[in-house]
Inverse folding.
């Protein structure tokens, strides 16, 4: 390749590759680092600095068997709490979106506006009151009070109508109403129309909302950390954060192994549902 | 005129008839399965409600019972009525929204006007009980009451035989009461139905618990309490603190100091000494006044608020700039491998952000972190411990977390702009920079602007990055509350309420109300500018 052609290649696409490589290096650095230190059998932060200097799965065994840090329990709690929250959030949100999209009733506009306004005040702002409410509820019903996973799920469901309903409402509106009218003429009731006709048509947005809700609960620290007190009911966000509250003395490799395992299900879901998400993101989700 | 009204009434009547017909058709076509599902679900709601009412009745919580009954009745009406069709779909979400979002937000507002927190947790009655149970001294001429230590439903109690030969039983919470059916050995009560008597060996084994047990003599706190040093005989102890119900004050009989209830939620002596624990009272705007006028609190509030705005604004600006730049860079038809770049660039966004922030915290560690040790060749750069550098670090990490999102949405928006517009601009003689500034950017902003606003709102309360990376630190040692130089408002609320030596729910909630006001103002401006509320229909 002559130097002239090289220069013109660089002006056209070469600099784009150069930028891409630089940005990728920055984007991948922490990921590479955490994978490398998770494979490092030695525990310390210093020992993790030489990337891939040692390969072994000792730290995975350590984090899975540490009685002080019940990682498998955290993992299960996170999947259960976030999974149930995601499913119920989708259901509650879809019900509400169906009503807003297909029915005309007094207070409909006010309802839509309230939902948009309420979502400006996220639940974590009310963490003090949530703590006090759950400790009062726990005096009467220990099953949903402090230190209860069910209680935490109920709290998360309070946010189900926030962003999600609005997102779904927009999508529901794109499904032509003539489809449900045809079904109604054929004698289907409103519940039948909802479950057998509308829901299957809006699956993409259901997937997006479920994933966003799942990720949000996996990431949620503020409320979870004040509600879940004992180590064996905590989520990954609460447990792992306390585990490395002092990275200098913590078993850094074991944490890294835990972090890799914790990230896997979310990343897998994300990549699996990627084509839906990119569409859904532009409809108003943020990170 | 008359025909006009006639038509209106017939129209209304017809509409009503149509609605009824639709309802009947719905009922008829709903099918048995829908009906059964409805019955089961409403049945579960009712069963839970009845159980809740029974439990709450045991606690005497009549106000809460009224709410439970009202909600359950409403649910039954909604699902068995033929009208209220929208409510059938809205009710489940709205009930959760009302309790766990709207109510708790309002309750936070209320707590901001109280002194709720460590030392001010309960009612005045509880405070009096706690005070009179402390500083106990044995009554010099107290008779020795024969006792047995008993255990029932997880708590210890004392089974006492009075000089008259009656058997009384009480726990640390419940004052002594006569028990019927106690078993006597000689003239000494040794067992009571429903309670298990601790044997001598058990008493020895749980000696600390037994000696710490003190049972109120009667429902009047000034009657003192019974305690047993050995598990077989108990003596009467009187607190040196005596509560006078008439004046509502507490007197220390040892020193003679009188502590009055002066409305601040604690018994206070004439020279300002407070007895702890106190109780919860409404304090009006005291928390706000304290937050703004107390020099040591006002300083942190100002810099934390400024940093919150700076953090959110800079994050949005930087992530948008980088995301847009990358989107333009990779949006080139002749470039190979675009898909690979895109797939890999999404990864920082796909990883849960709390994990990334924790990993970055390790990498930015001053003495052992990867950045200093490997990339900067052993330099001791205080990434997380210098006030300004820590702010920069928080921004760097947050931009790292957020730029893929902006890259994704900008790519989407760019691809939806028709290519003809660019061509037309070129034909008209615009250079690429002009075409971008005059055509691409304005069109892009139409679809991206609402996302920038919601990104700002999100980052305004982006607790995780700050807390996981620096814990708000480096700590501001001159402030009486745990606050640091990278704290944003929400992380300050969390730390004041839940970390540190004392928990101050009142002050934390007052800070929350400040966030409410700021968010409300921002939202009003945002909604005005974007007119998004007007477009709702």
């Amino acid at each position: 390749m002559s130097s002239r052609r090289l220069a013109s290649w660089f002006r056209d696409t070469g600099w784009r590759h150069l930028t891409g490589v630089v940005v990728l290096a920055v984007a991948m650095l922490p990921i590479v680092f955490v994978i490398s230190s998770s494979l490092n059998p030695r525990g310390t932060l210093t020992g993790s600095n030489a990337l891939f200097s040692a390969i072994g799965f000792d730290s995975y065994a350590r984090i899975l068997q540490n009685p002080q840090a019940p990682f498998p329990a955290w993992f299960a709690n996170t999947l259960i709490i976030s999974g149930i929250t995601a499913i119920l959030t989708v259901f509650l949100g879809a019900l509400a979106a169906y009503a807003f999209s297909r029915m005309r009733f007094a207070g409909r506009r006010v309802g839509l506006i309230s939902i948009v306004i309420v979502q400006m005040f996220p639940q974590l702002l009310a963490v003090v009151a949530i703590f006090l409410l759950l400790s009062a509820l726990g005096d009467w019903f220990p099953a949903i009070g402090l230190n209860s996973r069910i209680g935490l799920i109920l709290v998360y469901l309070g946010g189900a109508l926030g962003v999600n309903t609005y997102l779904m409402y927009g999508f529901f509106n794109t499904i032509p109403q003539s489809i449900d009218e045809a079904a109604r003429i054929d004698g289907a009731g409103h519940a039948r129309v909802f479950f057998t006709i509308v829901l299957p048509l809006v699956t993409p947005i259901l997937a997006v909302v479920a994933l966003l809700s799942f990720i949000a609960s996996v990431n949620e620290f503020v409320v979870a950390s004040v509600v879940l007190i004992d180590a064996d009911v905590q989520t990954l966000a609460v447990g792992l954060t306390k585990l490395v509250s002092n990275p200098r003395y913590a078993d850094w490799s074991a944490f890294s192994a835990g972090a890799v395992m914790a990230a896997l299900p979310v990343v897998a879901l994300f990549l699996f549902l990627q084509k839906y998400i990119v569409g859904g993101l532009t409809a108003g989700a943020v990170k | 005129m008359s025909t006009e009204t006639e038509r209106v009434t017939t129209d209304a009547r017809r509409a009503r008839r149509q609605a009824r017909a639709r309802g009947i058709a719905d009922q008829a076509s709903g099918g048995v399965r829908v009906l059964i599902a409805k019955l089961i679900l409403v049945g579960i709601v009712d069963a839970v409600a009845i159980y809740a009412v029974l439990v709450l009745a045991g606690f005497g919580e009549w106000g809460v019972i009224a709410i439970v009954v009202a909600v359950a009745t409403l649910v039954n009406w909604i699902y068995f009525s033929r009208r209220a069709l929208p409510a059938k779909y809205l009710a489940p979400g709205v009930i959760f929204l009302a309790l766990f979002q709207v109510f708790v937000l309002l309750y936070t507002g209320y707590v901001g006007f109280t002194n709720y927190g460590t030392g001010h947790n309960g009612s005045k009655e509880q405070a009096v009980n706690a005070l009179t149970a402390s500083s106990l001294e044995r009554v010099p001429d107290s008779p020795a009451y024969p006792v047995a230590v008993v255990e029932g439903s997880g708590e210890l109690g004392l089974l006492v035989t009075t000089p008259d030969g009656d058997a009384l039983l009480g726990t640390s919470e419940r004052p002594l009461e006569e028990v019927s059916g106690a078993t006597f050995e000689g003239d000494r009560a040794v067992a009571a139905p429903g309670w298990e008597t601790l044997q001598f060996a058990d008493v020895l084994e749980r000696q600390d618990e037994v000696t710490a047990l003190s049972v109120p003599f009667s429902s009047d706190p000034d009657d003192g309490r019974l305690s047993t040093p050995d598990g077989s005989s108990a003596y009467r102890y009187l607190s040196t603190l005596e509560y006078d119900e008439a004046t509502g004050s507490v007197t220390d009989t040892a020193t003679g100091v009188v502590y009055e209830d002066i409305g601040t939620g604690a018994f206070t002596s004439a020279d300002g000494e407070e007895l702890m624990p106190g109780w919860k009272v409404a304090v009006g705007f005291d928390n706000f006044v304290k937050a703004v006028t107390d020099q040591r609190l006002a300083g942190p509030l100002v810099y934390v608020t400024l940093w919150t705005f700076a953090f959110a604004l800079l994050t949005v600006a930087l992530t948008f700039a980088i995301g847009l730049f990358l989107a333009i860079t990779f949006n080139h038809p002749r470039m190979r491998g675009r898909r690979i770049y895109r797939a890999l660039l999404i990864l920082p966004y796909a990883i849960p952000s709390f994990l990334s922030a924790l990993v970055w915290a390790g990498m930015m560690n001053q003495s052992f972190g990867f950045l200093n040790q490997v990339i900067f060749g052993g330099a001791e750069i205080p990434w997380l411990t210098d006030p300004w550098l820590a702010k920069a670090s928080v921004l760097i990490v947050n931009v790292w977390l957020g730029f893929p999102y902006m890259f994704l949405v900008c790519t989407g928006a760019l691809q939806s702009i028709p290519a003809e517009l660019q061509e037309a601009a070129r034909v008209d003689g615009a250079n690429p920079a002009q075409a971008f500034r005059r055509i691409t950017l304005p069109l892009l902003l139409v679809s991206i602007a609402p996302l920038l606003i919601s990104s700002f709102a999100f980052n305004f309360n982006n607790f995780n990055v700050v807390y996981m990376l620096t814990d708000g630190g480096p700590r501001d040692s001159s402030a009486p509350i745990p606050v640091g130089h990278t704290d944003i408002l929400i992380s300050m609320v969390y730390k004041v309420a839940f970390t540190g030596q004392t928990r101050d729910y009142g002050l934390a909630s007052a800070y929350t109300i400040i966030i409410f006001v700021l968010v409300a103002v921002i939202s009003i401006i945002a909604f005005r500018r974007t007119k998004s509320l007007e477009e709702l229909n």
User: Anything to note?
Assistant: The longest helix of chain A spans residues 3-38.
